[in-house]
Amino acid sequence: MLQTEKQYVQWQENETLHNAVWLSESNHMPPARIVLVDDTTTADDAYRLACEGTSLLWRGDFHNARQLLQALGRRIDRTNERSELRKMKKAANKPNAASVQGIPNLFHQQRQLQAQRSRILSRLLLELDANYVSQLRRAPDVSAACTAAFGPLDTAMDTSCVLSFRDLQGALGAAGWREKGVPIDSLGLSIFPHYGVFAPTRHEYVQLLLDAALPDTCDVAYDIGTGTGLLAIILAQRGVPQVIATDLNPRALACANENFTRLELTAVQLQQADLYPTDAPLANLIVCNPPWLPAKPSSSLEYAVYDAKSAMLRGVLQGAKQHLAEHGQLWLIMSDLAEHLQLRTRDELLSLFADAGLSVKYRLDTQPKHGRSQDDSDPLHVARSAEVTSLWCLTLI
Ligand SMILES: C[S@@+](CC[C@H](N)C(=O)[O-])C[C@H]1O[C@@H](n2cnc3c(N)ncnc32)[C@H](O)[C@@H]1O
């Protein structure tokens, strides 16, 4: 899931061949063509080069690079606005059958445009030394944020690394979340997400987990795909004496561990596992908030949002029979956005439950209030504004 093999990037500068570790969170290959750019490079030239596939290694003032990135973003947006998307957006916002049929296309097209935008913007690069220090004029101290996000570099082996400004901005943003935390008002606490871990900035489902009645016996619970640890924290706070939380992503495990430690939770154990824990007692309750959209993730950062071929959803449902104790319950947190985007039907979801030998005991619903669901300039507003997030309480048939 995460890039593990070290890759290198090379470029010619002052008649010398330079070599540096290549860091890319989007798993982009090291660039084959690099030109040096600085404060004298115009945004139009930079945009043309980036669109042609050339990467731009920034040698000017740090803050001017940020402005160049914004200028590139505006050029991409202007081009996209002129494109087909605009027509499709108009069609998708008309509530008639023909326009509703355009929604899956619109979703895929929007993802393609986002991927293309990310590819172009990711071509603006900077070099940091092996301690993540930038030699650019007016560069801030990014070393702690990069170490937290990407891990330390091998200072004995490598003298520098090259990464995109976008990835650097992601690392700086994540460092801010990690320091300030995301307040979860209904719990009266903050969760501290790490870089690359699903951040519960939109957490309408927390109230569902507080409202659902625990099974009569609830000695052991699992939280499958724990991310920051949020659901496990809710269960521990509700008094479940043993909560076993799993995730595949090592960053999630480190993050959840930090959150549990901050809250001095002793009831929660962590396991790196593909879905279900091993060597664990049967569960009276299994909770899972899988990625909600059945589509292929295009980078490691998207694994918490997109579930290719609904693999996690199917795996959790199919495994319930083997892991639930008698009278146990599976609480599945799902939004129906996939249904509004016509990526899955309600009947297909119900068939997945039935195929796994599960029946619906009850369902709790809530309507998201986050900004995106209310943004009527979003091409997918029709789908997003109709979204409902549910806690499905499932039991073995
Ligand atoms: C949508 S996030 C939910 C995180 C957290 N439970 C919450 O509600 O905030 C899904 C999580 O599942 C994890 N995940 C994805 N596939 C997994 C698998 N096969 N086994 C364990 N965890 C997985 C991801 O790393 C991510 O942390």
Structure description:
The protein is of the alpha/beta class and 397 residues long. The chain has two domains: 7-176, no CATH class; 182-396, Vaccinia Virus protein VP39 (Rossmann fold, 3-Layer(aba) Sandwich), CATH 3.40.50.150. The chain has 14 helices and 15 strands. The strands form three sheets. Strands 11-10-9-12-13-15-14 form a seven-stranded mixed beta sheet, with helices on both faces. Strands 1-2-6-5-4-3 form a six-stranded mixed beta sheet. The chain has a two-stranded antiparallel sheet with strand order 7-8. Helix 2 (62-81) packs antiparallel against helix 5 (103-121), helix 3 (84-92) packs antiparallel against helix 5 and helix 6 packs across helix 7 (165-180). The protein is globular and about 70 Å long. The two termini are 34 Å apart. It binds S-adenosylmethionine. Residues 198, 200, 225-228, 230-231, 246-249, 252, 274-275, 289-291, 303-304, 312 line the site of S-adenosylmethionine.
